[in-house]
Amino acid sequence: MPIKNTIIVLPQFHKQRLDIFLSVQLKTSRSQAQKIIKAGQVLINNKSPKKAGDQLNQNDEIQILAFAPSVSVVKKPFCRPKEIKPTTPNKIPKIKIIAQEKDYLIVAKPAGLLTHPTIADESQTLSKILAKKFPKIKKVGEDPARPGIVHRLDKDASGLMVVAVTPKMFKHLKTQFKNRTVLKEYLVLVHGQVKSDEGKIDFPLTRSKTSERMAAWPSHQKQADDFVGRPALTEFWVEKRYLNFTLLRVKIHTGRMHQIRAHMLAYNHPVVGDQLYFQKKQKRTWDEKCGRLFLHCVKLGLVDLSGQTREYSLELPLALKNFLKKLT
């Protein structure tokens, strides 16, 4: 009998298309989600859907059967991250340990690696690699699929992350993230010349009903009646301007899904190398040359169990440094 994974449709996904819902949940493309549906591997309340565009209702049970070998759920990007080569799926990516403390780890997540498994149960994720290297982590957290994980970085982003090693530190970190006291700074290269030397973006965010993206609504525009967004605040400072690009230091005060990427697109300066949040009119040549999403967490600050503030820094990966040299 096939193994089933079940997802309950939450209120924010009410009336969303099935294929879009699956693409978000499985972190794959819409076309790949449609293939899974067409292959008969998806049920809605124990019944086969009529079509990929069926609308979901709140509290629907979406059951996904174990993936058949013939069905791929891997998103094919226009440019592959250099850190992880897709031609060697069995090779375990090397995770750099920045700091190994008694109660937590500070690690450098490479681009192209998921923080934790999705419902597709990927074999290579940061959480699985660390749990294998540090078995103590396996018993830490609220979800066995993501032991020790208290926050995440997008798959195509890179940089600093903190992972709890003990239950006490896990709870301590969760409280800090909930209270938004954790310092997170990123270096982000965006398209176009940002005119202001510094600024704040406070556009509310919500999941799009028509695509895989998060939707941001600029604060100066009148919101649609059916738009229900969550508060989100992104702050930035210009590090350097190039001819057609701007390097920003970005600090997020909230931790919404795809926050920086969605905010920068709505701000009319999409992130270089972003396969999801881009403008149709923009030329993709430089995105392809970059070869990955130019979003890297360079600073992380937290309070340890003794009450001491700890800050960690990380340089840009060599590939991103070399890309910036091409712009000068």
Quick summary of this structure?
This protein has 328 residues and is α+β, with helices and mostly antiparallel strands. 19% of the residues lie in helices and 24% in strands.
Please give the structural blueprint.
Layout: E1 4-8, H1 18-25, H2 30-38, E2 42-44, E3 61-65, E4 96-100, E5 104-109, H3 126-133, E6 158-164, H4 167-178, E7 183-191, E8 198-201, E9 205-207, E10 214-216, E11 234-241, E12 245-252, H5 259-266, H6 285-290, E13 295-303, E14 309-313, H7 318-327
Helix pairs in contact: 1-2
What do you see in this structure?
Keywords: Isomerase, RNA-binding. One of its GO terms (molecular function) is rRNA pseudouridine synthase activity. It catalyses: a uridine in RNA = a pseudouridine in RNA. It comes from Candidatus Magasanikbacteria bacterium CG10_big_fil_rev_8_21_14_0_10_40_10. The protein is of the alpha+beta class and 328 residues long. The protein has three domains: 62 residues, Roll (Structural Genomics Hypothetical 15.5 Kd Protein In mrcA-pckA Intergenic Region, Chain A); 84 residues, Pseudouridine synthase (2-Layer Sandwich), CATH 3.30.2350; 119 residues, Pseudouridine synthase (2-Layer Sandwich). A hairpin with a 6-residue loop joins strand 9 and strand 10.
Superfamily (CATH H level) name of the largest domain: Pseudouridine synthase
Helical segment count: 7
Q: Compute the average pLDDT.
A: 85
Q: Low-confidence segments, ≥5 residues, pLDDT <50?
A: 67-88
Report strand %.
15-25%
What structural class do helix, strand and pairing data support? alpha+beta
User: How many beta-strand segments?
Assistant: 14
Shape: globular
